[in-house]
Amino acid sequence: MAYDLQINLLGGFECRAAGGECVHFPTRKVRALCVWLALHADEPQARDRLATLLWGEQSDASARLNLRKALSRLRACCPGSGSDCLITQDDRVTLLSDRVTVDVAHFLRSAQEATPASLERAAALYRGPLLLGFPACGEVFDDCITAERQRLEDTYCSVLHRLLEHHAATGAIESGVQTALSLLRIDPLQEHVHQTLMRLYLYLGRPGAALAQYRRCRDLLAEELGVEPSTETEQLKAILLEGQTLPATTEDDAPSPGVHPIRTPAEHAREQPSPVPPRSGRPMVAVLSFALAIQDPGLRLLGDGMAEDIAIELGRFRELDVIAPPSALAYRDATAPPERIGKELGATCVVSGALQEAASGLRITIRLLDTTTGRQLWAERYVRRRGEMFELQDEIVHRLVAELADRIEDDRLAAARRKTPSELEAYDLWLRGRATLRRTDLAALKEARGYFQQAIARDPHFGRPHVGLALAQINEWACFSWNHWVFPRQEVLEHVDRALELDEYDQHAHCVLAMARLYAGHYETARHGLLRALELNPNDADVLAHAALGLTLIGDHEPAVEHGRNALRLAPHAPDWYTTFAGMALFNARQYEQALATMAPAPEAICNTSAFIAAAEAHLGRAERCSAYRETVHAHYQRELERGALSAQTSCVDWLLTVDPFRLDDDVAHYVDGLRRAGFL
């Protein structure tokens, strides 16, 4: 829609006409009048109120006369039809929002919708405090603007906090670091943000940066408030130091807020936009978290679990594409309507539901919407006891499949059916463990293991907690011990074997076992396991991402690229490691520009991401861009040496080849050649 005027109030005042030319106002009072009306677009403002606001120190008659003159001048300043945006009627003045666009209104609307994309828009719109540098216009006006400025800054902080929660929950660690730094620029005394930043640095394999952040937090609290860090902060420091050998100088390991030694994702995007995976032509379905009538943590977990299980079961059908559950569940607290959320996720259909306690159990409402037309395709209401939830999920999946696919055989659904726990309490414990496992800290891994162990004790025939225990162990090694996919520990294999013994249709168990076999050098067995996991659920984004990594290490680069792209397509809010696995497949397929664009959003997603970025740049003849990436990789390598994980005779390149054991000599030579050109040798 075309607007007559564009008024920006955040970070300073600016008013432009539809053609882009700047609109100038003759006096500061006329400008202030424009500001106030813009802040309250579509809200009729009483003339007496406006007169008092801007000329309160004058007599009523004089103030009203000045207001009439200011309104006349304001109309004259609006170019062409722009004067029509100002309506005076019944002693009231209104600026029409359908003729004027105001950044504050867009900021507040985006913040209220609270989807990940709208929160990103809100953060981008907030270019600075309201009317920064605006001249004084009287005590009443200035006081009102000060209050509004504080309200908008509080809203901006809330936006950043919600974004930080989203980034941490979805594994977007690099974005989480930048958001946390933005929050600390606003208020450096937010101890919980320092804690989150410490966790994120630790997850990135940067213990020195985490320790430096602790020291920064400790010193600020002492200097500004005269207090010591909280018990939780000290516990984080203890976890950080436990088992770590840190270099003597760690203060410089954490960059100053907003400073990053590697080009930012925005800089990458300007040079090479991230590739958009093509649509498959199949219906793309998103299953949203179930809405609650009242906030009940236990009911929330059940609603999330139902949504994820429905998505997993739908994902078993090749006739459908299904958005990864973590990406869909990221919209749990959004206020935008389901069809808009579906469009933001790229879905053609969205499943939304609601849970409510009833006298006889639970009341469940579920709807299927077409995001293109907003039309409701199917809806149903159920009342079930909690113990009947698993049967209800089957019924819902059958109905959804019947609506979405032309032909789905019932026996396929029965064959793919997950085995469910005999007791709902075991399922609830598994839900708690899975939710905890998604947090980015070591304490969460310990807590998640406790939930999984309790679930197994409650129902020894429930397979998924065994997979959870295996993943918790893997996450600890890969993310906090800086040993990528280390699988010599027998307990991981025992848990996976037990999971498959209990449920042969668990695609995650097949995937974990396949990757274990790959890193043990059993490439053909690994390939078979990955293909089996994909056969069981071709829509599982985690499995697709690992298939991209596993198959490219085996040497099957074309399917690896396809699976990596599909993982990113089905998980719009994917964890950072997805981009590395997909980018590695593209690199090995010699698609360097696309590899760079894919890995750009998270250049430090895992310890070797920067190595592949540097090798890709070098193969493109841009070795001058490689120094920062090379230094990042060497920092990880040095930490491995200092921890004693590597012998002194192990070179950085030897370590990188251990991290990613390529099967084919040609792939090894191609990687080493890129590293050599990038200056690693």
Care to describe what's here?
The strands form 3 sheets. Strands 7, 8, 9, 10, 11 and 12 form a 6-stranded mixed β-sheet that branches. A 3-stranded mixed β-sheet has the order 2-1-6. It is built from 30 helices and 12 strands. Helix content is 58%, strand content 9%. The radius of gyration is 28 Å and the shape is globular. The protein has 681 residues and is an alpha/beta fold. Among the domains are: 5-145, Winged helix-like DNA-binding domain superfamily/Winged helix DNA-binding domain (Arc Repressor Mutant, subunit A), CATH 1.10.10; 171-260, Tetratricopeptide repeat domain (Serine Threonine Protein Phosphatase 5, Tetratricopeptide repeat); 284-404, TolB, N-terminal domain (Rossmann fold), CATH 3.40.50. Helix 19 (464-480) packs antiparallel against helix 20 (490-502), helix 21 (507-519) packs antiparallel against helix 22 and helix 25 (576-588) runs antiparallel to helix 26 (592-599).
